[in-house]
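Hi everyone, sorry if this is the wrong subforum. Our group has a chain we'd like a structural model of before ordering constructs, and none of us has done structure prediction before. Sequence below.
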Amino acid sequence: MTQEFVLETRGLTKEFRGFTAVDDVDLQIQEGQIHALIGPNGAGKTTVFNLLTKFLPPTRGEILYRGKPITGMRANEIARLGLVRSFQISAVFAHMTALENVRVALQRKLGTSFHFWKSEKSLEPLNERALALLEEVDLQDYADVLTVEMPYGRKRALEVATTLALEPTVMLLDEPTQGMGAEDVDRIVALIRRVSAGRTVLMVEHNLSVVSRLCDRITVLARGAVLAEGDYASVSADPRVREAYMGSETTSEEAEA
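Answer:
Right subforum, don't worry. Here is the predicted structure as tokens:
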């Protein structure tokens, strides 16, 4: 049964000096799906991401990738397996162009990231792939633009391109629409839908309209524990979820969806 899940946790727990931030969480992420992790502030969503990507060690529990334990692996080993994470804030180099940012990510994949003595010309073979990735996220017109001069929504799209450069099998997206206006949100939703083809996506997302449009399955956390799981229709109808997370917000979000 384990083999049908690309990513799984069993009893995942994280305690900080007596405070339980993640409490006995079992997740089963099916290959090829877009799976959302939602919940109120302080529910433990980002802590779960930090545990999955080895930014934090768990207090107890197991993490499995394609049925094999990876709990003791380091962050770089997790990334090489294909579990690649984006962050809540844009994590690109502000004073490099979009093309240069993607090229750095491609160098990381090749294991040449720290070859600072290499000439600019030696990196030119990476340009074709970098340009193709920029086109995949609709940033071909920004190739020579410094990242600091790009609109916020485009910076987030660039971060997706740098994530794709690492050839992920599982993309972990932490609040991909955080701080965006409606137009940028729509663009990122379309982008995630497009790049999810042939990949698995696990995302933390606060915007329920985004979740309803994108996600095959949803896990709701409250106080560090799993409160409910299912598709959007079943989760949004669950009175426990409404009370813990959606509240009066539910009606407006469903109207948007």
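For your construct planning: DSSP finds ten helices and ten strands in the chain. The two ends are 34 Å apart (CA to CA).
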